[in-house]
Structure formats: C-alpha cells, structure tokens
UniProtKB/TrEMBL annotation:
<protein>
    <recommendedName>
        <fullName>Alpha/beta hydrolase</fullName>
    </recommendedName>
</protein>
<dbReference type="InterPro" id="IPR010315">
    <property type="entry name" value="DUF915_hydro-like"/>
</dbReference>
<keyword id="KW-0472">Membrane</keyword>
<keyword id="KW-1133">Transmembrane helix</keyword>
<keyword id="KW-0812">Transmembrane</keyword>
<dbReference type="Pfam" id="PF06028">
    <property type="entry name" value="DUF915"/>
</dbReference>
<dbReference type="InterPro" id="IPR029058">
    <property type="entry name" value="AB_hydrolase_fold"/>
</dbReference>
<feature type="transmembrane region" description="Helical">
    <location>
        <begin position="12"/>
        <end position="32"/>
    </location>
</feature>
Amino acid sequence: MFKQLIKRHKLLSLLTVSIALGVSIFFIKSPYTSSQDNSSITPTLFIHGYKGGPGSFNTMIDRLEDNQLGEKEMTVRVSSKGKIMMRGRFSAEQHPFIQVIFHDNRASLTNQTLWLQEIMHKLKVDYGIQQVNLVGHSMGGLAAANFMAQKDSSLPTVEKLIVMGSPFKGIDKEEYFDINTGEALTDLRPDAQLLSRLSGNKDSFPSHLKVLAIAGAIDAKYTNENADTIVKQKNYDGGDGLVSISSALGIKEVVPANNYHEVIVRDVEATHSGLHEHPSVDKEVATFLWKK
C-alpha cells in the first residue's frame, strides 16, 4: 500500500511538471498579444548575407547595445522550408533590434525576399509594428532591397535602409563561384537576371525611403573615379576583397538622389566579412539611423 502511494505521488509530480513545462513552452512560443501599443516604435532588422548566421551581426548588435543605442528584443529564425520562428517581445524601448537568421543561408534571393515578406507580415499582424529600419550585409542587403521593390503597402513601412558590401552589380570574381555552392550563387553573378531587373527599375523604391550604402576599400589606390577600370584589371579584386566599390554602391542607380547616402571605408580591415565588425561602420549606422 505504501509503495503504491509513493508510485502515485511520483506520477502526480511528473504530470504536474509536464503541465508546467507545456504551459511555459506555450507562452514562449505565443506572440505577444497584450494591449501594448507598438505603433510608435521602430525596430531595426539585421539581415545576414550568403553563408552568414548569428555571428554575422551578433557583435555589432552587442556594441550598439553597449553604446545604449537600442536593445535586441527579438530573434527571428527561418527554417530551410520557410517556417518563421519568432522569439522575444517588445518593451518600451524605442529602438528595438531584431536579428533575422536564415537556416538555409545559401537560399535564392527570391526565397529570402518571400521570407522577409512573411516576417514583416507577422510583425504587423501579431505585434502591431507599423514601421521598421532594415540593415543588410552582402546578400542580406540585396534581399532587403528586393523586398522594397515589391511595394506591398499592407506591410510595415520601411523608413531607412542600410546595405553594406551588397553586390548590386554582382561579384566579379569567377573563382568565388568555383568554391561555393547553393541557389544563391545564380543571383550573385554580374549577369544575374534578378539583379538586372532590380538595378534597371528606377521606380523600385518609394520616394520617402532613405538609403545608406557602405562599401569597403582595402586598397588605397581604389577611388570612385577609377573604380570600374581597376575592377576589370586581371587578378585585382577591388573594394572589400570580394565586392567592388561600384557594385556595393550600385543601389544609387535606383534611389532618388536626395535620399541616397554613401560611405566608403578605406582601411585594410574593411574586408567583406570585416565590414560589420568595423568601428567606423558602427558609427555610420548609428548616425544614419538615430542621429547619434
């Protein structure tokens, strides 16, 4: 009899723990649906590039937090099949950060754009977000720009867009395509159809959108005037070592001149992967987004 009571007690305890765990998981996974008004806040989404991941923007976000420019309040993960998983909730912070992570980090530009649309839809419907900023590195900048070109007025308004090292004219480095794989490579070539459509559409971007393009220049002999000529020289990578300056600044062809801003970081540390780790880039991001 005593053994049966002990066994029954253990089963009851296990059931209680299971219910509590289930409730906890439910609340963690459930969207924030309180009466909190999020219409006045402007989250900034950080979108990594080809083969990127959490490490692409983790340290930049940490540095921005250390400088009290905002707080990371949400992480959005997109599975390889396009399932959106959102973790976090918005507080009273006026400049919340959202880190976007694609599990398939070699996906096509079309798929990344569709995923961004779904993320933005959830932000508006589930969280009441009305406006956002977008920061994209490399292919993340292309995805953000292509998202803007879709002009869906039912989604949150994008106030400001920052693209860093984003190859709007493709990557002019054939060996890069020899050592890498994935659907994304089709969209990163200089003759990519999607890039041609994007750069050739003068009406791609709304008139209110402010854009900052950031390019790296690891070689001092590279200037705006000789950019196109030097990039075509044999065995010269140009720009940040992967993306030429003219390609990284290619978005200016479709952005109204009064809304376009550009910065060239001339430093041996301003490599393609080093742009989001560079202190000068931190400063430019803060000034452009929050006037800091």
